[in-house]
Design goal:
Layout (H helix, E strand, L loop, with lengths): L12 E2 L2 H8 L9 E5 L7 H4 L5 E5 L3 H10 L7 E2 L9 H4 L4 E6 L5 H10 L6 E7 H8 L9 H9 E9 L4 E2 L6 E8 L9 H13 L5 H4 L7 H4 L13 H15 L1
Parallel strand pairs: 2-3, 2-5, 3-4, 5-6
Antiparallel strand pairs: 1-8, 6-9, 7-9
């Protein structure tokens, strides 16, 4: 079934039922009973989530989509949150309970959705969804790649990231100009870092803002001691460091300031 849909917030609506089911099936349903779909549009993915042995909620800012969902998914009506996910306090509904995030994410806010998920990582054991392909690849990328960056390191510090499959433009209405990619994030068993987490975020962001420079130069604002700057790690560029090495780097900086 293809429904009339409009593009909003940079979103392209999925019209392929098989792909929708495949995305819904990326959730493992381990460690939570609630699912929150971001930007359900006309519900092509939602219908398969409602078949799961879990409680599905949706959050949608577009009034037309909300009205469509209310009229066509009566069993969902009480669990439609008409809010902006990026500004919404999830505990108004979930009261601290764990939930999985899923969606065909609007391209223009997909990175912000990931950053908010990282802030709420205590509550979100699993995250699955569709991004612009290059963004999905970047999130899952390992060190040594030119596309490895802030999103890669910060996400993989807390989650195991897996790129699952590519989706062609032809299955969307309207078709985007680029391919899409579906990924899954499963929170690590131990997702507490052995360093100051705020400092870790700051170090990673500062390092990649000047990614062509060595860490010795890009991290100058931390006023590091000459002794610490002599460490071999400061002669490297940020894309050469694994997540674990970024944690070690943060520990070095933390100890230097002690």
């Amino acid at each position: 079934m293809m429904v009339k849909a409009k593009k909003h917030l940079g979103q392209h609506f999925l019209r392929d039922e098989n792909i929708a089911k495949k995305i819904a099936d990326t959730l493992t349903l381990n460690g939570y009973k609630n699912i929150l779909e971001i930007g359900p549009g006309m519900g092509v993915l939602t219908k398969y989530l409602l078949e799961k042995d879990s409680t599905t909620y949706v959050i949608e800012i577009d009034t037309e989509s909300v009205e469509y969902l209310q009229a066509n998914y009566l069993n969902l009506a009480s669990r439609i949150i008409e809010k902006d996910f990026l500004k919404y306090d999830l505990n108004e509904v979930f009261k601290g309970e764990s939930l999985a995030i899923i969606g065909n994410f609007p391209y223009n806010i997909s990175s912000q959705i990931v950053f908010k998920t990282l802030e709420l990582r205590n509550q979100i054991p699993e995250f699955s969804g569709m991004f612009q392909k290059e963004v999905a690849k970047r999130i899952c990328e390992k060190e040594g790649s030119k596309t490895y960056g802030i999103l890669s390191v910060l996400t993989q510090a807390f989650y195991n990231a897996e790129y699952l499959f590519t989706v062609p433009p032809s299955v969307f209405n309207p078709p985007p100009k680029v391919e899409s990619g579906v990924l899954r994030l499963i929170r690590k068993e131990n997702y507490t870092l052995p360093c100051d987490e705020k400092l870790f975020f700051k170090v990673v962001k500062q390092a990649f803002q000047q990614r062509r420079k060595t860490l010795r130069n890009s991290l100058k604002t931390f006023n590091l001691s000459d002794n610490l700057k002599a460490n071999i790690i400061f002669g490297k560029r940020p894309e050469q460091l694994s997540v674990h090495q970024f944690i070690e780097l943060t520990q070095h900086i933390e100890n230097d300031k002690a």
